[in-house]
Write a structure and sequence with these properties.
- By secondary structure, this protein is an alpha+beta fold.
- It is built from seven helices and four strands, in the order ααβααβαββαα.
- α4 runs parallel beside α6 (123-134).
- It is globular and about 60 Å long.
Length: 155
């Protein structure tokens, strides 16, 4: 009886964990061709996260940046997110002349480059980049000017 109870409790705990994980919001990554069609239709900017499976900082962005609810919400709501992997998207890597990982880029819906940054960025910094592009501020100022104005408003 004790063994049966133990198995039952382990089963219930596992189901709870699976339910919690399944219900967690995630970024709705699209393939490159799918993203271009969606961007043309919805007129939203594209966000490309170019990565490698062996890249430590790519994994760190997955864990510490792309897992945050605010990042997930803003990316899913106002952008077309695309994850491009060097192991499966070699032609795209060549097209974009990728030189290192992670390589993160924002494009308008016509695939004109808006803003690009390399390397790991924590969620707080990444949110500044998302807001910079989402607000259209990139049309009138650089990202550091945007950051300073944003910081002054909060103080």
């Amino acid at each position: 009886i004790v063994g049966d109870r133990f198995i039952f409790y382990v089963f219930i705990a596992g189901m709870i964990l699976l339910h919690q994980h399944a219900g967690a919001a995630q970024i709705k990554w699209q393939t490159y061709p799918e993203a271009l069609r969606t961007a043309a239709r919805e007129k939203k900017p594209l966000f490309f996260h170019v990565r490698s499976n062996w890249c430590y900082y790519c994994k760190k962005m997955d864990q510490r940046t792309f897992s945050r609810p605010r990042v997930i919400d803003l990316l899913n709501r106002n952008f077309i997110p695309v994850k491009i992997s060097e192991s499966t998207d070699y032609k795209l890597m060549k097209k974009f002349k990728v030189k290192g990982y992670p390589d993160n880029r924002f494009y308008d819906h016509n695939e004109v480059l808006i803003f690009q940054f390399y390397g790991f960025q924590p969620a707080e910094v990444f949110m500044v980049f998302l807001e910079f592009v989402d607000s259209g501020s990139y049309k009138t100022m650089d990202v550091m000017t945007f950051y300073e104005k944003r910081r002054q408003k909060k103080n």
